[in-house]
Predict the structure.
Amino acid sequence: MPAAPPTARLAALAVALALASTTAGRQPDPPKLGPKLPDGTFTLPPAAGGGVVLSPDDYAKLQAQIDQLKKQLAARKPGPPSGCAVRGKVEKRGDTLVAALSLKVTFRTTAPNSAVALGGKKGFLVSAKLDDGPAPVLETAEDGLVALVEAAGDHTVTLELECPVAGRANKAEVGFELGLPRAAITTLALDAPPGVGRVSLATRLPDAKTADTRRGVDVKQLAAQPGRDGYPVGPVESLDVTWEPPAAAPPTEAALTADWEVVTVIGAGFVETAAKLRPRGPARVWKVAAPADAVVTPERVAPAVGDATPSDAPTILRPTDAKKAVWTVEFPAGTSPADWGLTAVVRTSRPKSDDPTHAGPYAVGPFALLDAARQTGTLRVAAAAHTRLSVRHGPDVRQDVPPGPATDEAVSFFRFASGAAGPAPPPAPLAEVEARPTTGLVEVRPSYRLTLTEGGWRVRAELKVTPVRRDLETLTIDVPADWRAPAVTPPDLVDGVEPGKDGGPRRTLTVRLAAAHKQPIDLVLTATLSVPPGASSAQVSLLRFPGATERDAAVTATVADGLDVRGAAREWDGDQPAGWGQPLAADPKAAKGPPAITGRTDGGLARVDLNWSPDRVELTAELRAEVTAQATQVVVTETLRLRAPEGFGKAVRLRGPAVPKGLKTSPPLTPAGPGEWTLPVAADAKEATLTATYALPTRDAAAPVDLLWPASATRVESIVRVWNGTADRAVGVDAGPWRELPPEPAPGRDVLPVRTLAGSGSDLPLTLSLAAPADLSGATARADRGLVQVWLGADGTATGRARFVLSRWPADGIDVSLPPLVSGTVVKVAVDGNEAPAGVGPYGLRVPLPEAKAGRTAVLDLQYQFAAGGWRPLAVPELAGAAVEVVRVQVTAPDAVPLLLGGHPEQRWALRGFTFAPYAPAADELDDWLLKGIEPKWNGVALHAAAVRADGPVRAAAVPLVALITACSAVVLVLGLLAVRLPGSAAGPVVTVVAGAVAVAAALAPQPAGAAAAAALPGLAVLVLVLAARALTRRAARRRVTHLPGFARGPVADDATPRPTPSVKPRPVPTGSTGDLGAAASG
């Protein structure tokens, strides 16, 4: 059956304690107050002469439960209700005004025993009811009343309150103030006093940052109307209603209120009560009800102002009638009563402990401020430790949790509140207290854990020892004689163990503690119990604790996987185990671990009878694992298929690596210890599949690989493929019990595994060996395209950016070898546009890459700076162990012409405008080629950029454009003019030599030769112009010679006379002559 709610149990236990306290002899003179319970609880008193007798053990149980329930109630945080409707009217009671209010609070609870705030602060509770039924269980909090509702659902609590109407300081207004529960829907309906036409509403929201709001409201808006709950005020926590009284009526004086703080201390030979009074109000004469034998003294609670003298102190007049003791306090003129308080101390002697009246009762008070509209206060009763306090009080007093930290004293704390007090003193004291010493006891809650091992049953008894109203220094334990090597820990609590006399079925151990304890402590006793080989049953006797109360004993028995265990637990029947046992049930936690049974009882356990037998289910497993060796770890991806023809029956236990990194499984596993997990499966399921991925660390050159194995499988068949995911290591396998299979390709991988292994059985060892190979000629990575872009600077440095499109790479990343860089250069590394955390690798930088999949590519991006110019080699990164198909290098010099040696130039001559020059691919064209594979169209900038296909080192130099054009043009112009001036016999060889040199230069350095040829075009144009001008000049000279004025030149007549041979060799015809001697002579 369901457990009773905490509030109901608290009420029942409080009733029992109150009834128990009435059994002892008491004096018949005090008034019959009877047991007082919190508001909303009730009890049926016993018949006349009846009573309830509790043993110390029962009383201790009840007291412990009450303390626990009090803590639970104190820890509850009440929630606000959904609605609060306030209806009220202002009534006149004698000479004072009182606001009679009715609060209708509606709310919904989703769980039993919920706490709901009701408000009501600064109001006096008259009555309360829950759902038109009995009164609810109410608690007093700082913000007002709190209702404890047992059942979940929709509820309504109706509170009847009264608030005194008092004046406002420095204002001609009167009103009242009431705390509200911050309900979202809060309304007010008020019947104002006659003659009042408008009231002022001041509200305060829970948010401390929001200022208080004040608004004036016509009384007609506050009047109750059909179909309307009232005037909405919002989710406020405080409501202050004020109005100006009618002019004809005299102003209402502020009500006199009192706040008390009463402390009663019960010592060994005295009882002292100190009551501090703090009145509030304009009254200049206080009438205080206090015992006639009290010592009453005034106390200034506010610092003196101005020239205050001792004569300003109030005058205290002692009571004239001891039976109706009323003290009078009068204040002289010019003295403010608000600056003073009053302290009354009553001290009486207490009879000796052997006197029947030593326990009391002792009266507290009465204490009251007469003619006060309201009185509130606290009552604290304290006594020495291990004292049971019984406090009887009236309905205005309510017990509460003592504020402040817990102490060793016995303390009872109360709050009280009462309405208007008349002119007569109270007829009864505030409370009556009885104090009786309690008999101390020790409670032990044992929890036994029995584990079957090869040597027998291992017993672990966890003892929670609680001293009740006494100091715990030693604990006596009766240990069964067949328990071997009992030991008690922990050593910081246990000072020593003293064994008793041996003999009989039990021996006594006295545990001596290192210090006396008043709070609960935890001890652990361990021992072993031998079991004969082949035994399948055992009777395990358990501990006993002489002089202590044993309760809430529990036992759990665990056996190994593959065994079935059953048993029964027997309680004590006197000094012997009971004749019948309580069967132990399967432990719910055993589904995640080894088989276990458990049981619990309210008292102690004497013996456990256990039986166990093999219970093995036929279970086969197929294991496939992909083992990838990386630089610093081994990644395992495992698929485990389990089959049980008769059903699994329970969860499957797995064994594996002790600390796998990043273990991810589907379905999720439940940890059962270091290197152990359980796979939850349905009891009637016959097949299950588990996929797991995890990583294992490598240790130098060896990497042990622990797989996930089913612990209870009858047959396991395994296939393991080993892959090399590194670029700088060779992976080997120590076959051991494994047999090698032909290489088996895997979908999504374009390489074969290093080894493919097969094995039969469980827990087969597998060890990988990692060694650096002699060379890295075998490529483990592939780059389809590479682009290196270099920007030459004027300071002798260059900025480089190298990108590679990878289509295959090792699982743990790739090593990048960089040439010498500029000191302090930070290499920026990115993969697919995202910054990558590069580390130090054996060949330079180790760049982590994403998981390689079929058809997937990755773009590796490196940015760096290096020294360039002067025909130094360009810094082109190298990918270790990678085959790179094509690498293009683009060099740009913004203010110069880059000259490249090495590689295959990529340039095309084209006429664009008036420029005929070699053009390299543009940067955006090279980006398209790198990322998309689109060949460039050579639309770059002439001379300032150059590109080559790199198949080796590429050297670069930069020459200023103006200097290059000037030099090349001058060389062409000079060589052309010299060739023209040479004789015909020398011109041919010279031109041939020059042409051959140009051809050799173009073959050896095609890119610089092309740049020089483009730079020489201006000189060639000048040379052509010079030669053209020369030819025109010579033609003009010949024309002038041929067409001299006054001469006519015709054809020469044929003359057959032979000409004589001249004796003188004719001289050479000078340059510019026609060569006609006759013409020369005639001229």
Summary: The domain at 83-243 is CATH 2.60.40 (Immunoglobulin-like). The two ends are 154 Å apart (CA to CA). The mean pLDDT is 81. The longest helix spans residues 1006-1042.
